[in-house]
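In practice, a research group might receive sequence data for several interacting partners and want a quick structural hypothesis before committing to experiments. The following worked case mirrors that situation: the sequences arrive first, and a predicted assembly follows.
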Amino acid sequence: MPHAPRWTGTRSYLADEALQTTVNVAVALGRPLLVKGEPGTGKTLLAHAIADGLDLPLLTWHVKSTTRASDGLYLYDTVARLNDSRFGDRDVRDIEQYIKLGPLGLAFDQSIPERRVVLLIDEVDKADLEFPNDLLHELDAMRFRVAETGREVVAQARPIVVITSNAEKELPDAFLRRCVFHYIEFPDEALLGRICRVHHPHVEDALLAATLRRFLQVRSIPDLKKRPSTSELIDWIAALKLAGVAVEKIEQGVPLAGVLMKHETDSQRAARLRAPAARG
Amino acid sequence: MFVGFHTMLRTTGVPVGLGEWLTLLQALDDGAIGPSLKEFYTAARAVACRDEADFDRFDLAFSAYFQDAALPANVRQPLQEWLDAPIERPLLSPEELAALEHLDLEQLKALYAERLLEQQERHEGGSRWIGTGGTSPFGQGGSHPTGMRVGEGAGGRGQAIASARARRFRNYRSDVVLDTRAMAVAIRKLRRLERSSRRLELDLPETIDRTAKNAGDIEIVERPERRNQARVVLLLDSGGSMDPHARVVEAFFSALKRGGGLREVEVGYFHNCVYSELYTDMAMLERKPLEKWTKSVPPATHLVVVGDAWMAPRELFAGFGAIEYGMLDPTPGIDRLQELAAAYRSRAWLNPIPDNYWGEPTIAAVGNLFPMFPLTVEGMTAAVSTLLGKGDKRQRPLPARAAQ
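A structural hypothesis for the assembly, expressed as tokens:
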């Protein structure tokens, strides 16, 4: 098996060691990587970062509640064909032109031995209960047949499949068994600082430190409806910079709390954090 | 390779199968996992766990298995020798030596255990620990585990064990596994699809057919979408004896409401037994007479009762049996249940208490009117096939003999 270069995160996506190892194992085994974690910890971005880091093309498939597994393979545009049969100038005997490959189909089709494709299946738990099971066979065999034309779409190299889930629904066991699983933990303070630095390289140290302290304090409020996560923190820093909020303001309260907190009750509780943030 | 670890994982309750394990070994073979315990830890966890709830059990198994085996030989060997030869100990002060003589083996062990625990929880480097742990008292224990813990800090290896032992994922663990998914899958079988929706979809075969007949002039045909027509009337016992089962009832309820994709779920509440009126809210404020529940039941409606059917016999068999204030019904509860049973051809009773208690007189009596099933995933699956008229229709002689 040719050794793919190890993935170590990218300049804008910092990954801890555990994540790096897991990604590399999934890539080497050719197994789908199932990623869970709090919202806003970079599950979706991970696929982008893997594609970036390994310099591979990325295909994305955003799953919705109405998505069916077969949509990912291909769609047969019968209506267009019917229309062409009456009005069009295309040759309706050529069915192939009415077959449109879905993201999974494209990922198979575009995979050539030297160049794998990264496929992101985003929020797999949004779809119907049976959705993941319906994908099992194709993900295992890495091939499928287009019933209308008899053409077989075969992946020359296993695509690197990244699947994200928000745990809205439980996923079937048979599906889980085939995946490599990773739970993105919320980063610790040091990593959080580094992540913020990546996104805001020019923010002053004092502001960053104060923001981080305040942020962690807000996050530690028990029983928040939605705990703010990394993405909210990055947005918050951007907002604070734009609004030109002084460091003292952050030490005295939670300015622009709306960027951090998305629930009315949460904002009210955060607003009570008037006392200066505890230091060190 | 690591067969022992695999067994250990399974005993700890991480549901890792042989297939996944072979996958992991293949990864080791391919060199996808570097030669470090930490990488092995991460990789094994990624392959073996299916849920963050498994992480804690994984950590437990990992630290239990690898605290012995994983210590690199070049660290373990000198340690073992060092522990085996407890003579060279120039650091002991006379006072310490004096104190030591008063400690018997039990005290030593206790102290030793205490220190170990301390070390483990604080997670600090092992150098201090060597200073304390390595000196004579603990040498006597001949304890390999001490050596293990020393190695961890000193060698800078084995961090995986350290982090495994930190058990950061304890909070994600849920010992009470409420598998709503399996329940929802079972409920889904009640589905009865009919084309009576108001939403239309393109009827392709018919369109092609008509178009062909129309000499190629396109004629679009639409038809109603298929919709699930199944309805469920759910009656929940909210009596005090049901409190211990609140979680499983909740799981069932949410599976029915959200996962089942049913057309309608109507919910009623009762206290211990059904009388002349049922409540339509959990707080038991709004009432709806029983005859409204039993009159003109629409087709494809299933009645599911969740309750323990366990009460004082007079609550079920006597007139004015209700123990709640304001519920005055001269008809005995059992007759009311009979009315319900007569109105719903498709009915099932889900009982959260184990079936070896089903010989209790009230449960047995209720079980004669309603096919009774345990409120578990298996029970639900059986209940659903009874509701659909499959499998054995009547489990009538259920309990009576089940418990002696």
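Before designing any experiment, note the following. The mean pLDDT of chain A is 85. The CA atoms of residues 204 and 247 of chain A lie 10 Å apart.
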